Request: fold
Amino acid sequence: MLRFNSLVVYCLVATALAVAAQPPAPYGPLPSPRQLAWHEMEFYGFVHFTVNTFTDREWGYGDESPAIFNPTDFDADQIARTARDAGMRGLILTAKHHDGFCLWPSRYTEHSVKHAPWRGGRGDVVREMAEACRRAGIKFGVYLSPWDRNHPDYGRPAYLEYYRHQLRELLTNYGPLFTVWFDGANGGDGFYGGANERRNIDNRTYYDWPGTWAIVRELQPMASMFSDAGPDFRWVGNEQGIAGETCWATLDMTKPNRYPGGGSAGLNSGERPGTQWLPAECDVSIRPGWFYHAGEDEAVKSPAQLLDIYFKSVGRGACLNLNLPPDRRGRIHENDVRALRGFRRLLDETFAVNLARGARVTASHERPGGGFTAARAVDGDRASYWTTGDEVTTPELVIDLGRETVVSVIDLREHLPLGQRVEAFTVETWRGGGWVEFGSGTSIGNRRLLRGPRTLTTRVRLRITRAAAAPAIAEFGLYAEPLRLDPPAIVRNRQGMVALHASTAAADVRYTTDGSEPTAAAAVYAAPFPLPRGGVVKARVIAGGEGGVGEVAVRRFGFTKGRWKIQTSVADASRKNPARQMIDEAPATVWRAAAPGPLEVTLDLGEAASVGSLEYQPPADGIGAVDRCEVRVSLDGRNWSTVARGEFGNLQANPVAQTLTLSGSPQARFVRLVVLHTLADAPAAIAELGLAGR
Ligand code: FUL
Reply:
């Protein structure tokens, strides 16, 4: 009898425990194991490298000779190690960009490294990069551009067969791939085997995406696929690397634009509740362009800028894909390496100590039966989580730090296998005897970082204020960013005077105009200074004694525009927008032509100068961006010679400043930009024009 009773008790207790310790039911669309593996990558990189590196362009036309692909010192290990040392967990190589040139010796085309002088035509960039990534302990992936401006059959069914053959080569010959990246761009015109014509395709149907994706699933089941709309992860809708403040990991796939190349609507913030788990990837280049251009050596993003991007991408639940373009040697340029080292240092300093680890933690609710206690949110293990009973959707959790501690970064993660559950939350710190809001947010997902002021507190409270189901919080971390001396802002006004603005008046700003690093011996900034012929200004804050040395700010200026005159061959759209807005040092003010079609903009510099390049800044919305133009120069305003022709690629997605080199750096008093074509034939738009010496 006794034995029977204890058995009953045992069974009852065991059943009760088993029932109570059940995890909550999942909510909404859920990630696949493949997507969960991708989420764990968090930060990885792109390597944009091809003939464009040697032609100084962003989009090759497709007629480039393989003979120009000749890196002088290609070093895949240097590239892979640079990425790994920056904290990246993988690299994605442009095996083929829109120009169609293949970085591997494909059996299906002659337009490849086979016919390049590099490694005597026996080289294979894909293989070298794949092996270097493995040596560096990071993952490898490929970008295979669907748009191919070289292939004669592009636009016809035969091209799809070719494309899939290439895909199979990449999927079978280079080991495991963590991703296959399908770009959605198609600008229409191209070489196409000599046809030199415009070929527009229907992005939705032409590539038979389901059939193409099936090949990847068959040959590399764990590779996550990118396109504007999945199938595994989506574009974030811009090429600045910035996710929406609200960024759901889900998307409504019933919307009509949900196909590769279907446009950016809805992608930045995602959609709730959505029909599919389709998290965002933030892609951005460390330089303005995706390919290497020597003219952008001084425009590499600074460590502080990279950290800001990290907070706005990884810190909003997305993955960050940061592009590192190899230079003509085939190496990551020293300036980029330096910026990445600085960035890694900032990351390490920020996330070195999780103040929440080991702290006392209590919650308003815990799921009965154990296993999901508040302590699970601070155990540093993203597989375990704190959750509550099913009926509780607005619980609170308090971390008691035990003593006054500086906190400036909050780090949250949801337990993704249960879906995205939290819809709003607030974080507060205990100050002066009460709770004070530190910050708040909506979506959490894989990770949510809140960056706030350095706050001295003893306790931090997380309040879930809205959730679709009982929240499942995998991590709640607290960090303190060290005090830093921010780089000064370098600005030039319309009269051409350069000013340096530091965020602190308590330390000196030191600067140089000869390209050298500003040290404690460099000039102290006292007042705005002229820079009539332009040049590179480098500046940093240097505090005496223990105060430290700040990050260097760099800006390259062209000629001063103060005395220029400007004329256009057509009126402006609003009649209120004088042409001077093109030379007012304010890219936010945009001059727009009244009507579509070619036009001329003539600059009178007031005196002759040797002009090495023209810089064109498109409008931030890309509408009316000039994608084909010519530059003519004259000494007398009557006799003109054409000194440059340009085609600018990718302006819709990445409307950054474009530079045209003028052949022979001619002497000119008059410089004329001849606009030949604009994106979608819209009326031309010019945010800023600049000229520089050689
Ligand atoms: C874009 C392309 O057109 C750019 O050239 C670049 O490759 C970027 C990552 O994707 O859509």
User: Anything to note?
Assistant: Residues 7-19 have pLDDT under 50 and may be disordered. The chain has nine helices and 36 strands.
